[in-house]
Amino acid sequence: METVKITIPSNIIHNCQIVTGFLLLKEQGWNVEIVDRSRDAQNTFFDLPVIQAEYCGKKIMYDLWDGYQHPGDMKRCLDWCDIYFKRSFSQEKNQRLFPDESNKIYPLGFNYHITHRKNPINEPLWKALAKPFLGKTPDAYFVPEVFEGRAERKEGEPVKILFLTRLWDDQDPALDEEANRERTYINEARIQIIRTLREKYGDAFVGGLNDNALSRAWAPELIMPAKYTERRQYVKLLHSCDICIGTMGLFESIGWKTAEYVAAAKAIVNEHFHYAVTGDFREGENYIGFSTARECIDAVQSLVDDPEKLFAMKQKNEQYYREYLKPEVLVKNSLMQVKRILSGEEGKNN
After folding, report:
1. Which residues of 71-105 are buried (b: 16+ CB within 10 A; e: fewer)?
2. What's the pLDDT band for 160 if we cut at 50, 70, 90?
3. 126: how many CB neighbours lie within 10 A of its CB?
4. Tell me, what's the pLDDT at 104?
5. pLDDT tens figures, 45-69
6. Is the pLDDT of residue 4 over 80?
7. Average pLDDT, stretch 153-164?
8. Is the CB of residue 283 less than 8 Å from the CB of residue 290?
9. How many whole angstroms separate alpha carbon 36 and alpha carbon 80?
10. What span, in angstroms and rounded, lies between the C-alpha atoms of 20 and 113?
């Protein structure tokens, strides 16, 4: 079996999913060599949300950026590699921003903060030991099986709807005006959706904001107790719900919560995607898209009114998770795609 060498240039949590996938493949017998350079400031790609790999004589880059907010750094990554897998994938933006390299860029798929207990970029031990005293759960707890669920048909039980989220600072001096305007839009959209769902569904809806200064300034009445928003408690709550709401993330990204919903085999109502993912993930089958709070309500109601459609969507997402999103499967699929590209069997699947 060919050796896969990966280099970790950053301990940013965006990279955890890919490193986890490689660690799981190693446990399954793959020849995986891991070099941790996340503390090496001399590395060309130090502190970037990317993972470097070498496989079958080719250099591969895994890009976990939210969007295309750092095209200069992306260009450096593209110049280094032969094949480039991008989390937030847009054919139009690839061709506009990188016309000479767009033919080497392929979609990577959903991203979320998932890890492996041996992941070298997990938080330091002192921080992990301190977290329980602060009412928080160490990152190493959040391995794939914690999120994984099975599609369930609930007979005679009320449908439960979930949307726990956060707000972003829209006055960040480090960002340009456009990026701050996007944050304002995200905050306003999330608040409106929570208020509308609360009014419509009452106790059947579990949703609100985490407690911080931003939430207290924007919508204090929507703040949820920590027993719901602490990450371990949130995952337990996720498994108890049926329909989960997702909104656009920063730089038009697909939010991490959407991937968590897929892993848990839930029905999903999600703001329309701006980026492409891998595999057979279809609007109307794996999720229902919306643009406004009213459309969100209508989508939720269509699932509440049709238990068979609700269950079928759960099944679709359970299947998609097994075939495309499990960390080791996502990474393995990318390596198999490299082999197909090298053999000439694969045209542009963009």
Report:
1. eebbeebbeebbbbbbbbbbeebbeeebeebbebb
2. very high
3. 8
4. 97
5. 999 999 999 999 999 999 999 999 9
6. yes
7. 92
8. no
9. 18
10. 10
Sign of CA dihedral 190, 192, 194, 200: negative
Minimal CA–CA distance to 271: which of 290, 251, 250?
A: 290
Residue identified by tokens 């980026």 is 275
**How is residue 134 written in tokens?**
């602060």
- Per residue in 24-37, pLDDT (tens digit) is 999 999 999 999 99
Kind and range of the H or E element at 208? strand 205-209
pLDDT, residue 349, reads 44
- What confidence tier does 347 reach under pLDDT thresholds 50, 70, 90? low
Residues paired with 5 in a beta bridge: 33, 54
Copy the structure tokens of residue 223: 């703040």
Separation CA 14–CA 171 (nearest Å): 23
Q: Say how far apart CA 110 and CA 89 lie, in whole Å.
A: 10
Using DSSP bridges, classify how beta strands 105-107 and 32-36 pair: parallel, antiparallel or unpaired. unpaired
Distance set, CA 221 to CA 17, 46, 168, 191, 195 (Å) = 34, 41, 17, 10, 10
Q: Output DSSP code: residue 141.
A: G
C-alpha–C-alpha distance, residues 64 and 14, integer Å: 6
- Render the burial of 28-53: b for 16+ CB within 10 Å, e for the rest: eebebebeebbeeeebebeebbbbbb
d(CA 7, CA 23): 13
pLDDT at 80 over 60: yes
Are the C-beta atoms of residues 81 and 89 closer than 8 Å to each other?
no
